[in-house]
Amino acid sequence: MHRKSILGIILFLLTLALTILHGSLIDKYIQNNQLSNQIKEGTIQQIYNLDLENSCFDISPEFQFIEPQNFHNTQTVIPRKNQPRLKNISTSPPQPTYEAIDILWILLCSGLVFIMQPGFMCLESGLTRSKNSINVAIKNLTDFGISVTCFWSFGFAFMFGASSSGIIGHSKFFLATDLQAFDAAFFLFQVMFCGTATTIVSGAVAERMKYSSYLFVASLVSGLVYPIFGHWVWNGADIGILTGWLGHNGFVDFAGSSVVHSIGGWVSLATLLVIGPRTGRFPPGRPPEKIHGSNLPLSVLGAMLIWFGWFGFNGGSTLALNEQVAGIIVNTILASAAGMIITLGITWYIRGIPSVEGLINGTLSGLVGITAACHAVTAFSAILIGIIAAIVTMLVEQALEKIRVDDAVGAIPVHLGAGIWGTLAVAFFGKAEVLDTGLSFSQQLTVQLLGILAAFLLGFCLVYPILFIANKLYLFRVSEADENIGLNVSEHQAKTEILDLFRVMDSQARTQDLSLRVPVEPFTEVGQIAERYNQVMDALEEVTARNDAIIKVATDAIITFTKPELEIISINPSGEKIFAYKNQDLVGKPIYQIFDFTINPLTLEKMDADYLLMAPEELIEESLKLWVNPNLIGYYTQEFIDYFYVFDLQDIQPENWQFPFPSFLHLLEENLVDSQTESEPQKKINKQIKYIELMISKIAYSGNLYELVGIRADGSLFPMEIAV
User: Fold this and answer.
1) Counting Cβ atoms within 10 Å, is residue 407 exposed (0-12), middle (13-18) or buried (19+)?
2) Does the predicted TM-score (pTM) go above 0.70?
3) Which backbone phi and psi does 153 adopt, to 5 degrees?
4) In the chain, N or C terminus with fewer CB closer than 10 Å?
């Protein structure tokens, strides 16, 4: 046993020694292999740079009209150091390298921009009705996936590929995964921007657009519209040489007031003009109806997530963690806070209450407004930009309501209105030494206006005809029935507790079946409401069953009818026997078909009908009616008809207008409008109904029995007593 232990120890030590030796050999092999690969990589890089230098002397004619504009400041290009890329190899010449911290900063900002996506989801879900909240959420999830796919496939190539005449890129399709670290980080950052531009449309068209139709619009934005306009402005930004035709001419949009937000706003406007407003938003002949959101705290959470994500949106657009980042983020916060405060003050003063939606949109408008110039303005300028952006947003919101464009969440006022202002603010507030475009104020303002016009032409004038034609081929909007039931159910078959509750209520109202019960989901507020509702229905069903039993076995006739129309609803079995009618024959008939209040029940002789008709009228005091010009009235109600006469202007004699209170006594019966005259038979029917209703109300009020005459199906009369 002792020998076996010693042998085991020896074998263990021998195995350990071999393991250590094997590890050292592997490490040495890896180092040699890495050294060889580094030498090869350095050689290949030298050859590539040499070819690149040689190719610079042979420029094709179509590119000769573009003189690339070099930006020597570092706000749009990552800093590089002239040090050997391969430190341990003396044969490697100095090559530009990227700081690892800069790549880390881009990756971190990409994550911050991604947080804006759930922020938009919360914002839009809370500002829409609960019956559509699931549809809004799933659209925000899906459009991000579509944006990533389209942008990777061809959007990035259109935007950052080798430029064709400064219009569109033609390389880097289906981007490879074995990219340099900076290139991979740059793609990730830009694809987040693409997703943001796409999801702007989601909120504007909420609650009425088919899910499949929205996917088409999302693909159009992320795969074509956004990349092409982005190419015009930002192509070459990753290398510090802007070759897009707008960027080459000095157009400045640092982080996307136009590229991201205005493009999203223009596409939203085009889509809304195609699909129209939500049902009930703009009723004809009446003021617009506000459709309230279902969960404003969720919307506030969404706005705060967007605000937080904007730090990466603006701060990451430096593409480097340099000395400008802190000032950019400070300007971003100041502008958004200023937009929120000015909106709070204005809406509180006008409406008398602090508007939650106003606070949200004011904050976001400040963020959108500062995005284009956040790197080139002072703190005071940032505050002023935010204030004006909020005012512009409120004005655009009112203008859209005037022309009856229904934006469900205010996406167009925030992203388009404030985006246009933010683009112009570059010329008004941007510091020339930071912009580094070499343009005067008037020139800079002109090129900024040119960029706004280009965004309008591409984002609206191109998109609207496409959507208009596509809508003719395949209807974008859901049916009115689907819109009423909600897109959660009609588009995704996603049921909710509140929907189950409403469905049972509707079914009970339609069928009068009190045995139906609502499904109860415990531990939720709606579940507790459903449970209490079921308890009420249990008690009501018990009372109704007891009353039904009494009514069925009662020897007296029991009839139910409606008060205003005096139409019979039901009659019990005894009533069928007494009046010789079937239940179905009487339902819907007027009650005076089986009762006659004008015949003496003792003598069965006709009483003075005129006296009977005049008696109830003495109980009513009719107020003096006023004469009203019909041009001053938008629509008529019953209350209006009861208290006013309507005259035509042609019926008024000119001399009457000479007095402060003109007299209209000269108006003759034939000059009254037709709506105020009734035929004699109609007057008798109305008087008869009015008389019977008054008599029934008087009997019910007294609580006593009343003697009258009943009429059987064969027309025979019989005396009876009623109680109401």
Assistant:
1) buried
2) no
3) -70, -55
4) N
Bridge partners (DSSP) listed for residue 95 = 83
Closest to 366 in 3D by CA, of 400, 395, 332, 316: 332
Distances (CA, A) of 115 to 111, 138, 303, 691: 6, 16, 11, 70
pLDDT at 564: 66
CA distances from 69 to 231, 232, 323, 497 (A): 15, 13, 23, 60
Pair (190, 328) in one structural domain: yes
pLDDT of residue 64: 40
Q: Are residues 516 and 460 in the same domain?
A: no
- CA 559 to each of CA 208, 402, 582, 594, 693: distance values in angstroms, whole numbers, following the listed order: 46, 53, 12, 11, 15
How far is 647 from 627, CA to CA, in rounded Å? 7
**Residue 612 domain flag:** yes
Kindly report, residue by residue over 597-651, the tens digit of the pLDDT: 666 666 666 665 444 444 444 434 344 444 444 554 555 555 545 544 444 444 4
Residue 288 placed within a domain: yes
What residues make up the domain containing 672? 594-722
Query: Rounded distance, CA 413 to CA 392, Å?
Result: 8
Instruction: Note the pLDDT of residue 684.
Output: 58
In this structure, what token pair is assigned to residue 704? 């006593």
Q: How far apart are CA 158 and CA 526, in angstroms?
A: 50
Per-residue DSSP letter, 659:
S
Give the whole-angstrom CA distance, residue 44 versus residue 617. 108
Amino acid letter, 140? N
Claim to verify: residue 230 and residue 307 sit in the same structural domain: yes
- Cα 541 to Cα 488, 506, 527: the distances in Å are 32, 17, 21
Q: Are strands 644-646 and 626-628 parallel, antiparallel or unpaired?
A: parallel
Total domains present in the chain: 3
